[in-house]
């Protein structure tokens, strides 16, 4: 999205703006006039955050405006050279970091005047020293002959005799000054850059979350998250059978996965981590052996010492505890043998990390508490993941992967989400495979955050037969799309949210659901694929919401293999505003 910036209406340090627009973010070479700077209003950084992963179109200046830290200080903290006098591009995915204590970062006095400058040290870094000479805004503007925009490229031309490198160095010492009264108001309709090519995101890849069905008729969580050519796993469980391992790894290899940036283990039940251990089932090998795993996020069971379980499970609390400790030790041993970094999720912490366009936060990290009957079981120790994407329009899309969250922990999880500023959920992986839907707190999540598209990691045919009342209640509660992963892998596609929203689709299922977030509403679009699919088949009120959507039978889901045989010729749609 392109915005016009008025110098007259914005309180800025002119030197910072001129430098920062040269610091475009990118990777692959494209023509200069195709690059558009992201405005501060389109960059979403959570309150209290101390890092941000750069996206295509970001500038260092825009980031500095969002977090309210002078661009000079931000550059100094990240060892970025502002005085090169050259076109300088930071790569997409570069992580900018800063201190939570902003009082130590200001380079200006109470009136906004720059009091310090950056001085290069012998090791090539920068240190902050007192400045003996300040330049005024007028002095800077007096050295500029013109600012011209042509063919989408804005060029700053210096007056004769002005040296570009010296100019870029001098403008660090410019005081922040309100230009409200300046008569020469220039609209910067495109970013200032020097002539030549600029860098764009190398990947420009898909943003997807796939809940993979191992084809075993059992409930399990094996959730692949993918963004810009990078991959991670939110749980890695099957039934523990070798054939299930071969099914899921065969799909991963067909997709081209070689490396996982991270794997998260929500808890130590076999259907959430079996592919990481060799003592949890009859699997002969692990993902650590067949893929590169950079980081493993896992809770240590030793942080919970009070294990009590229901007598009906016919196992003692000690045996239950010892079994989980043995599995944990096996996973840790497998990880360390292959060089995987182990990150212990401490009780009460809230780890947050990025994967391409996604941010992932781990919730419900407190040590397990007894349930209302005084029992402890592994589900009370289950992590929850919040997956968020803020697209180029500034719209936020949220998916909650609840794993085996139990009702006793739902109120606390809801409060954690509210504290993070979450006001809606678009997609929800239903807690505990739908088995805990009878708990009093089960409906609190949709009632608090709006009815999301919901995925149940269970088999619909079995669940409906064994729990007919709960099944009917689920259908009545989750009316914006209810998908059963046990009937076929489910993919949640965030790749083109600007045009179509987040789209949920499933193998062997001609139905899809799209959620389109707006300023004050949410549209839920339920449609039916046609084969072959055309743009005209996927329209709502004449608008081609699905213009860039793949044909169903070519969803790149690998193991999702069967073609759709439906002869439906139109897409039915229901639009709901919340």
TrEMBL record:
<dbReference type="InterPro" id="IPR052159">
    <property type="entry name" value="Competence_DNA_uptake"/>
</dbReference>
<dbReference type="InterPro" id="IPR005877">
    <property type="entry name" value="YSIRK_signal_dom"/>
</dbReference>
<dbReference type="Pfam" id="PF01476">
    <property type="entry name" value="LysM"/>
</dbReference>
<keyword id="KW-0732">Signal</keyword>
<dbReference type="InterPro" id="IPR036866">
    <property type="entry name" value="RibonucZ/Hydroxyglut_hydro"/>
</dbReference>
<feature type="domain" description="LysM">
    <location>
        <begin position="50"/>
        <end position="98"/>
    </location>
</feature>
<protein>
    <submittedName>
        <fullName>Signal peptide-containing protein, YSIRK family</fullName>
    </submittedName>
</protein>
<dbReference type="InterPro" id="IPR001279">
    <property type="entry name" value="Metallo-B-lactamas"/>
</dbReference>
<dbReference type="InterPro" id="IPR018392">
    <property type="entry name" value="LysM"/>
</dbReference>
<dbReference type="Pfam" id="PF00753">
    <property type="entry name" value="Lactamase_B"/>
</dbReference>
<dbReference type="InterPro" id="IPR036779">
    <property type="entry name" value="LysM_dom_sf"/>
</dbReference>
């Amino acid at each position: 999205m392109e915005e016009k910036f008025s110098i007259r209406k914005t309180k800025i340090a002119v030197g910072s703006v001129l430098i920062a627009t040269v610091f475009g973010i990118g990777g692959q070479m494209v023509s200069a006039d195709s690059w558009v700077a992201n405005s501060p209003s389109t960059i979403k950084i959570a309150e209290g955050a101390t890092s941000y992963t750069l996206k295509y179109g970001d500038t260092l200046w825009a980031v500095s405006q969002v977090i309210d830290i002078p661009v000079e200080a931000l550059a100094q903290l990240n060892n970025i050279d502002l005085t090169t006098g050259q076109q300088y591009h930071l790569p997409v995915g570069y992580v900018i970091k800063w201190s939570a204590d902003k009082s130590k970062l200001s380079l200006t006095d109470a009136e906004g005047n720059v009091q310090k400058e950056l001085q290069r040290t012998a090791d090539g870094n920068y240190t902050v020293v007192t400045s003996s000479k300040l330049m005024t805004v007028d002095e800077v503007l007096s050295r500029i002959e013109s600012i011209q925009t042509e063919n989408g490229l804005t060029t700053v031309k210096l007056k004769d005799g002005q040296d570009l490198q010296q100019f870029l160095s001098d403008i660090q010492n410019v005081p922040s000054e309100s230009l409200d009264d300046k008569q020469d108001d220039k609209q910067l309709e495109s970013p200032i850059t020097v002539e030549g090519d600029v860098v764009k995101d190398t990947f420009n890849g898909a943003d997807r979350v796939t809940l993979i069905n191992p084809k075993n008729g059992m409930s399990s969580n094996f959730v692949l998250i993918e963004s810009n050519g990078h991959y991670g796993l939110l749980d890695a469980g099957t039934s523990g059978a070798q054939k299930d391992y071969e099914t899921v790894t065969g799909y991963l290899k067909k997709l081209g996965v070689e490396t996982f940036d991270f794997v998260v283990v929500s808890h130590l039940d076999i259907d959430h981590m079996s592919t990481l251990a060799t003592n949890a089932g009859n699997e002969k090998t692990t993902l650590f052996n067949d893929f590169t795993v950079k980081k493993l996020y896992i809770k240590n069971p030793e942080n919970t010492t009070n294990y009590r379980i229901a007598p009906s499970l016919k196992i003692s609390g000690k045996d239950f505890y010892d079994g989980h400790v043995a599995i944990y030790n096996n996973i840790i041993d497998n990880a360390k043998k292959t060089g995987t970094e182990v990150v212990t999720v401490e009780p009460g912490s809230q780890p947050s990390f990025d994967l391409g366009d996604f941010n992932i936060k781990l919730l419900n990290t407190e040590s397990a508490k007894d349930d209302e009957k005084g029992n402890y079981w592994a589900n009370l120790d289950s992590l929850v993941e919040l997956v968020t994407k803020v697209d180029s329009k500034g719209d936020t899309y949220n998916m909650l992967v609840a794993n085996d969250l139990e009702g006793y922990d739902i109120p606390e999880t809801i409060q954690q989400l509210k504290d993070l500023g979450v006001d809606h959920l678009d997609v929800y992986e239903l807690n505990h495979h739908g088995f805990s839907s009878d708990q009093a707190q089960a409906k609190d999540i949709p009632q608090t955050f709006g009815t999301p598209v919901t995925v149940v990691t269970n088999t619909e045919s079995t669940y409906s037969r064994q729990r007919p009342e709960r099944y009917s209640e689920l259908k009545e509660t989750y009316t914006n799309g209810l998908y059963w992963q046990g009937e076929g892998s489910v993919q949640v596609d965030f790749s083109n949210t600007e045009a179509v929203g987040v789209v949920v689709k499933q193998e062997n299922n001609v139905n899809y659901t799209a959620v389109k977030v707006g300023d004050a509403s949410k549209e839920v679009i339920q449609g039916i694929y046609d084969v072959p699919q055309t743009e005209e088949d996927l329209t709502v009120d004449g608008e081609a919401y699905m213009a860039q959507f793949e044909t169903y039978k070519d969803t790149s889901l690998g193991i999702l293999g069967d073609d759709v045989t439906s002869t439906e010729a139109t897409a039915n749609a229901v639009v709901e505003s919340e």
